[in-house]
Amino acid sequence: MIFSMASVGGRISLIVAALAVVLALYTTYWWRLSDVVAERVVDIGSEWREAGFRVQYAGLNVSGYPYRLQMALDQVDLKSHQESYDVWLNVPNFKVTSHPWNLKHWVGIFETPFQLGANFLKMEVLVKINDGRTSLVIGKTERPERFSLQLNDVVIGEEPGELIGRLDQLQLHIRDVSSSEREYDVGLLVHSLIVHSGSANEPHTHLDGLVLESKVRGPVPTQWEASSLHNWRTQGGILDLQRLHLSWQGVDVELSGTVALDHLLRPIGAATATIEGYREVLTALNKSGLISGSATIAATLALDLLSTTSQETGRRVVQAPITVQDGILSVGPIGLMHVGALAAP
Predict the structure, then answer these.
(1) For 10-28, what is each residue's pLDDT tens digit?
(2) Hey, which bits of the chain come out as E strands?
C-alpha cells in the first residue's frame, strides 16, 4: 500500500513536471513569436515608406498571452502622395488578433471612430467611419488569399463641411483565385446609402442597397495613375461584372457584362441590363447634367418600345443592351453620354 502510494505520487510529480516544461516551452514560444510579429510590423512600415507612403504610429503593444496574439497600434497615420491625388488615413486605435497556432488568419478591429481623406481634382473629401473590422487570410504561398472589410456608420463630406452622403454599412470581399495568379473574385455590399442633393429644395437620393459580384483579371493597379492602368490594360485586364444590383426609391437595376480599357484609358465593354423604373433613372441623369434633354427624350422613347409591364409591381420594365465604346455610353441604339478617361494618358 505504501509502495502504491509512493508510485502514484511519483507519477503525479512526473506529470506536473512535464506540464511545467510544456508551459515553459510554450511561454518561450509565445514571447519569441510576439517579438517576431512586432519586428514584422516595423519591417512592413519600412517597406511602405520605401514605396512612397508616409507611415507613422505612436505605439505598438503586443498582448493576449496565452490564448491570443494581439497587436494594438495607436495613432496610426498613413498617407499616399501621387501626382494627381493624395489619400490619407488616421486611426486612433487599431487592434489585430491571431492565434499563436494559426498565424495564417488575422482579424483587425476599429473600435473607435477614424477618418479617411482624399484630395483630387481640386476637391477634398473626408470620410468619417464609426467602427469596422477586417479579416486577412494568407495562403500557402504566403500571398494574401482572402481579404474582407466591413465599415459601419460612414459619413462622406466635402471640405469645408459640405455633406455629400452617408451609409449604414459597406462590405468588401476579395478572394485570390488559386487557379491563376492574376484573377480575383470581388464582392461589394452597400446598405442604405443617402446621397445629399446639395440643395434645400431638392430631395436626397436614398439607395436602399447595392450588391456587386465580379471577377477582376490581370495585375490589379496599385495606383490610380495612367502607368498602372495602362499596365493592367496591356496585361489582359478585364472586369467581369457577374452581377450588379441596385435598388432605390422604386427603381431596380440588374446588370451583367464585361468592362476593359481602350488605348486612351476609357472604359470599353458591353452588358445587359434589366431596369424597372428606367424613366426615373434617365430623369435623374438629366437633372445631374450627365445627359442632355434630347438624349433623355430619345432614350425614353426607345426604351418604351422595348419595355413590358411587371405583373408584380405594375411598373414598366425593360431589358436592353448597354455598350461603351469610343468614349460613348449607349443604351440600345441611343448614345446616352460621354465617358472620359479614368486617368490622363
Answers:
(1) 677 777 778 888 888 888 8
(2) 53-56, 59-63, 69-81, 85-99, 102-110, 114-120, 123-138, 144-158, 162-176, 183-195, 205-217, 238-248, 251-261, 267-276, 308-309, 316-325, 328-331, 334-338
